[in-house]
Amino acid sequence: MTAQLIDGNALSKQLRTEVAQRASALKAQGVTPGLAVVLVGDNPASQVYVRNKVKACEDSGLHSVLEKYAADMSEADLLARVDALNNDPSIHGILVQLPLPAHIDAQKVIEAISPLKDVDGFHIASAGALMTGMPGFWPCTPYGCMKMLESIGYDLKGKHAVVIGRSNIVGKPMALMLLQKNATVTICHSGTQNLKAQTLQADVIVAAVGKRNVLTADMVKPGAVVLDVGMNRNDEGKLCGDVDFEGVRQVASHITPVPGGVGPMTITMLLVNTLEAAERAAAGA
Ligand code: NAP
C-alpha cells in the first residue's frame, strides 16, 4: 500500500479562499477582521513566523498589525499593550508570539488576553471550553489536524486514536478534539513504555514530539491514518517531521508530509479563528 497524501497546502488554499469570502461579507457590514501579532525580542524563527502570519492575513483580506518590541521590554509594559489591544475594537484576535524573553511570565501574558480574542486558543478559558465542549477558540495546530481528517471524510466514531505528545498546545488539545468526535484516545509521552504496542493498535496516529523517526513503519497498523506535527531538521538540514515518511507511507492509508502538511494548516486555522472572532463580535456575541 502507498498512502495517499493529505496535502496541507491544497487544503489551506481552499480554506483560505473561504476565509477571504467570509471576510469580504463581513467587510460589507462595516467590520474588517483584525489580528494583532505581538513580537518581543529578535528570535530569528519567531520573526519568520510572525511575518508569515501577517502576510497570510493580508492575502486573505484580514487587517493585521505587527507590534515589535525590544527584548528588554518589561512584563508590565507588555501587559499594558495586551490590555490596550483587548480594548481596541478594530482588533478581533491577539497573538503574542512565543517564546517570550525569560524575564516575562508567558502564562501571565496569555491569561491577560481577552478569551474573546484568544485566537491562539492558549488561554485557560479556551482550554476549559475545549474540555467541556463549550464555544471557544481551539489551538490552531490540532484544529488543523482535525480539518485534515475531515477533508478525507474520516469518521472518527469508534476508532482508536493514539496521540504521541502531551503538550498544552498540541498533544492534549488534540486528544480532546479526537475524543469529542467519539474516538477512543490514548495519549503517549516520554514516560510511555512500549510506544510501539500502543501505536500498533491505532487507526489514527498523531505524532507531536519534536524528534525524528519517533514513528517507523513497523509501529503502524496497515491502513492507519498518520498525521505528522513534528518539525525537525534532518542530517542535510532539511525540514522533516517525527515520522519516517518513506517507510510509513508504505503501510498507512493516508499521511501528511513535512513540509506541506500540518504546518500550513496551523496558520490557516489562525485566520479561521480570527475571522470567527470578528463574526462573533459583529453578532454581538
Ligand atoms: P513539546 O512541548 O516539546 O512536547 C513534546 C511531547 O513529546 C512531550 O509531551 C513529551 O513527553 C513527548 N515525547 C518526547 N519524547 C518522546 C518519546 N520518545 N516518545 C513519546 N513521547 C515523547 O512539543 P510541542 O510544542 O507539542 O511540539 C511538538 C512538535 O511539533 C515539535 O517538533 C514542534 O516544533 C512541532 N510543532 C509544529 C507545529 C506546526 O505548525 N507544524 C506547531 C506546533 C508544534 P513529556 O511530556 O513526557 O515530556
TrEMBL record:
Domain Tetrahydrofolate dehydrogenase/cyclohydrolase NAD(P)-binding as annotated: residue spans: 139-281
Positions of the Tetrahydrofolate dehydrogenase/cyclohydrolase catalytic domain: 6-120
Gene Ontology MF, one: methylenetetrahydrofolate dehydrogenase (NADP+) activity
Residues given in the record as NADP(+) binding sites: 165-167
Known partners and oligomeric status: Homodimer.
CDD domains, per database record: NAD_bind_m-THF_DH_Cyclohyd
Keyword Amino-acid biosynthesis annotated: yes
Protein name: Bifunctional protein FolD
E.C. number: 1.5.1.5, 3.5.4.9
Keywords, sorted A to Z: Amino-acid biosynthesis, Histidine biosynthesis, Hydrolase, Methionine biosynthesis, Multifunctional enzyme, NADP, One-carbon metabolism, Oxidoreductase, Purine biosynthesis
NCBIfam families recorded: PRK10792.1 (NF008058), PRK14186.1 (NF010783), PRK14189.1 (NF010786)
Catalytic activities: (6R)-5,10-methenyltetrahydrofolate + H2O = (6R)-10-formyltetrahydrofolate + H(+); (6R)-5,10-methylene-5,6,7,8-tetrahydrofolate + NADP(+) = (6R)-5,10-methenyltetrahydrofolate + NADPH
Family: Belongs to the tetrahydrofolate dehydrogenase/cyclohydrolase family.
Summary of the function given for this chain in its UniProt record: Catalyzes the oxidation of 5,10-methylenetetrahydrofolate to 5,10-methenyltetrahydrofolate and then the hydrolysis of 5,10-methenyltetrahydrofolate to 10-formyltetrahydrofolate.
Source species: Curvibacter microcysteis
